[in-house]
Each structure stands twice: as structure tokens, then as C-alpha cells.
Amino acid sequence: MSKALDWFLAPITVIAAGVFLFSANLHTDDTGIIAGLIFISAAITSFLFRRPGFLFGSMIGLSIVASELWNLHHGVPRRQMSTTQNFLLLLVVVTVISVAGSALGFAARRVVTQLTGATRNS
Fold first, then answer.
1. pLDDT, position 82
2. How far apart are alpha carbons 114 and 64 in whole angstroms?
3. Where are the domains of the chain?
4. What pLDDT does residue 68 have?
């Protein structure tokens, strides 16, 4: 895949994952599942799209903050999401999870590339 196509497809992939996570977070209160989905989505995006995947994959968790803001203003707000500090803590946590997933996907891509390159050169 060309690098220009990566820069086009990575944001589209992240938007699709973000919409899914936004919706899923509105309908569940299972934090572990949501955290796992953030991590896996970021890792897959980063693995597939190299550097743009790492950049955009690191932002996937923002959809959770957006869904909690939506709940606060238009839905049924969770009592633990009632202050600015709660939202800042949520932002930090989902960003760390997203960056960790992106870093794992990026590292896995490098390992696979090195292994397949070494196999071709043998």
C-alpha cells in the first residue's frame, strides 16, 4: 500500500472505530470490554497503516470522552462522570490505552517487516 493511501485510509478507519466505540460506550457500562476494544482498535490501525496509523490510532480513545459528554448533555449521565476532573482523568486513561495499543501495533508491524524482509533476503 502506498504511503499516500495510508494517510487517507487511517483516519477513515479510526473514525469508523470511533463511531463504533462511541455507540458501544453509550449502551454498556463494562469498562474492561471498552478498554480492550480501544487497545485492539489502536493496535490494528497502527499495524495496518504504519505512522499514520500510530498517529490516528492514538486518538481512538477520544470517542469515549465524546460519548460521556454526550451522555452528560443528552442522555443519562453516569454519576462518576460529573466533574471536570472526572473527564480529565478519563481523557488521560483512554489516551494511555490508545497510545499503548498503537505502540504495540507499530512494534508488531516492524517485527513482521523485519522477519519477512530477512526471509526474502535468505
1. 83
2. 34
3. 3-121
4. 92
Is 44:100 a contact under the CB 8 Å cutoff? no
Residue-wise burial string across 64-77, b where 16 or more C-beta atoms lie within 10 A, e elsewhere = bbebbeeeeeeeee
For residue range 61-104, list pLDDT tens digits in order.
999 999 999 998 888 778 888 889 999 999 999 999 999 999 99
**What pTM value is reported for the model?**
0.89
State the residue for C-alpha cell 495496518: 48
Q: Which amino acid is at 10?
A: A
**DSSP per-residue codes, 19-75:** HHHHHHHHH---HHHHHHHHHHHHHHHHHHHHHHHHHHHTTTTHHHHHHHHHHHHHS
